[in-house]
Amino acid sequence: MREIAEEAGIxxxxxxxHFDSKESIVDEVLRTFLExxxxxxxxxxxxxxxARTVLAEMVRIGFSTxxxxxxxxxxxxxxxxxxxxxxxxxxxxxxxxxxxxxRMWIEQIKRGQAAGQFRGDVDPKLTYRMIRxxxxxxxxxxxxxxxxxxxxxAEHYVKVLFDGLGIGDRVSQQV
Amino acid sequence: MREIAEEAGIxxxxxxxHFDSKESIVDEVLRTFLExxxxxxxxxxxxxxxARTVLAEMVRIGFSTxxxxxxxxxxxxxxxxxxxxxxxxxxxxxxxxxxxxxRMWIEQIKRGQAAGQFRGDVDPKLTYRMIRxxxxxxxxxxxxxxxxxxxxxAEHYVKVLFDGLGIGDRVSQQV
DNA sequence: GTCTATAATTTGATAGAC
DNA sequence: GTCTATCAAATTATAGAC
Lengths: 175, 175
What we know:
The structure is a homodimer. By secondary structure, the first copy, chain A, is mainly alpha-helical. Chain A has a single domain (22-163), classed as Tetracycline Repressor, domain 2. Helix content of chain A is 69%, strand content 0%. Chain A has nine helices and no strands. Chain A has helices at 2-8, 12-15, 22-45, 51-64, 70-85, 92-114, 124-137, 150-163, 170-173. Chain A is elongated, with a radius of gyration of 19 Å. At the A-B interface, helix 5, helix 7 and helix 8 of A face helix 5, helix 7 and helix 8 of B. Chain A binds a DNA duplex through residues 1-2, 10-18, 20-22.
């Protein structure tokens, strides 16, 4: 709280005029982030595009939140398990939001598999988790002004995710 | 410290008979982990196999540490930046170890590109970071006894990483 | 090698003046 | 809306008995 107040240019006691607790600050940061994220996912999904296009767009949306929602993504990374373990039900919406997001991703992965755009021999849920992790953990090393911006990260990842690092006869490698 | 002592079945004061500070505990946990990890990477690299085989093995090694080195991986995830920021130089070896590990991975990626096993239009360093993140963050949700063991996670990831999620004419998708 | 007791510091939060 | 002053609890660490 003292560090937050210092960043804001006031003393820690003054923070309690704006928020009634540390949890309330976290709450506002996370709600804003999740509402924005889910809304943008919905737009991508409702675009009517094929699964591969939608999934690529969702990857781009994810990376694009790293800058505007850096604090939220960091808190999600570091304190997710802690916030969920709190005795009050204050952060129950986190699980609700995560479940909805997971459903969105998995639906697109399954739709792509059904349409023959994605290979059928991967587990949709596990694949979602790995995509999710890759995007959000980038907040730990990503710094604005570096060699690549979030859009560049997204394009690189989409390339590897969809087409793979390897070169060669795809079919013969699918055992 | 109280929680660690409780897990050990003693009181917190008694811990200081075995370690002179909290940092010393973290230090021992991380050193053990990094020595094991680097040694196993070296074995894989010195096997003389082609880059693709070595890289797949390095992925397997990474996932296989999630169970035996769960505490270390968790601390690396949560406290890496903090440990590096400490005024004393006690954890300088973390950066040294990370640099060495990064060199190992990037060398294999570049070797695979030179040999035509990996596509040349991906950034080796960025690709390494994404592989690294995907492996280690799994510690946050991976629980022994679940649907998949670490070896299963590794095989799934190797499949997606090398061959991609997509199906179709690879060349036409490389713009 | 562990316990009891306690020191020293950090941290979230409050009361009331201005 | 911010500051001063301070509280209460938590947390790392120490001293000395057993």
